[in-house]
Amino acid sequence: MKLALITDIHANREAFEACLEQAHLHGADRIALLGDFVGYGADPGWVVTRVQDLVSQGAIAVRGNHDEAVVQGPGPNLIEEARRAIAWTREQLSPEQLTFLSALPYRVEDSGCLFVHANAHAPSGWEYILGRTEAVRSMHATDCRHTFCGHVHQPMLYHMSSTGKIADFTPVPGVAVPVPAHRQWLAIPGSAGQPRDGNPAACWAMFDDARHTLTFHRVPYDLETTSAKIVAAGLPRSLADRLHEGY
Q: Which ranges carry the Calcineurin-like phosphoesterase domain (predicted)?
């Protein structure tokens, strides 16, 4: 089975559509959505509806911190720009969409894989995996051989041997990486809707569980339309500007 991994869409319709189209072209059999469907962008209603449709068709979806914030109110760690976007987003969503977001699980285990937004050891605490220390802690918290996370807007792959040796590397887009089950793996596909690694192209990844490979992808999308929508909605202009630089 080929599983497309998409995360941190952040209400960016154009980026989400581009990722879904490319995933289809690459033969994805199923989709896993790793949270943060809303926040920052100007199309939260469309994105949530699309996520609902995909879940009804068998997609996996987990809760992100921005999804939780729009339902429960922003936590103390969200910056002012994010808070403004969350307040605006809440006004754009229907009661049904808010209920859908509030019902999303923090983590899902399926076919020996773990899907979570932030980490495996405390998924509702929203701690970032910024290096090997956090990655090890997360991998120690699950028996799954493959963990897929969002939250960090930069693609990264960690692996741990049976002896506990940890390594990491930044993947090259389009190059299949062997991810055999005799090691433990933690993969961060990067953000579809707001990349922060200096490359504005949307991120997604494909896990092939038959071949035990993981391929990270980048796909360009209509940045001009996306950023214009953000400005037109009255959201902070900085949220539009940063998309062009990928930061």
A: 1-203
The residue range of the domain holding 111 is: 2-245
Report the C-alpha gap between 220 and 202 in whole angstroms.
6
Closest of 63, 61, 58 to residue 29, by C-alpha: 58
pTM of the entire structure? 0.97
In Å, how far are 10, 59, 88, 239 from 103, measured between CA atoms?
18, 15, 21, 28
Parallel/antiparallel/unpaired status of strands 184-188 and 146-149? parallel
Contact 158, 139 (CB under 8 A): yes
User: Where residue 79 sits, what CATH number does that domain have?
Assistant: 3.60.21.10
Q: What is the pLDDT of residue 162?
A: 87
pLDDT in tens, 20-55: 999 999 999 999 999 999 999 999 999 999 999 999
